[in-house]
Design goal:
Blueprint lengths: L8 H14 L2 H7 L4 E2 L2 E2 H25 L3 H4 L8
Antiparallel strand pairs: 1-2
Length: about 80
């Protein structure tokens, strides 16, 4: 069986689903208010923060899956490798 690098498909699907839900029209109506944050309208700020959060989550999951298991990091090799 070949080894797959990168995050598990379930995690990628969960992040994709979260992105679809967070950028969906009914949820965007919550943030469409006449408020400002540091002089910027609320909706673009929230869109940018959510977008950045999804990218950060993907980077964290990818970096976490790229590390070898704890036993390999300690210098202990598994049998047969």
């Amino acid at each position: 069986m070949r080894r797959r690098d990168g995050p598990r498909p379930e995690v990628l699907l969960a992040l994709c689903g979260a992105g679809f839900l967070l950028f969906n029209f009914p949820l965007l109506l919550i943030w469409d208010q006449p408020l400002t944050i540091l002089g910027l309208p609320l909706l673009p700020v929230v869109l940018f923060v959510v977008w950045g959060g999804l990218i950060a989550a993907l980077a964290w999951v990818s970096a976490r899956s790229a590390r070898p298991p704890r036993s390999d990091r300690a210098g202990n090799r598994r049998k047969g490798e």
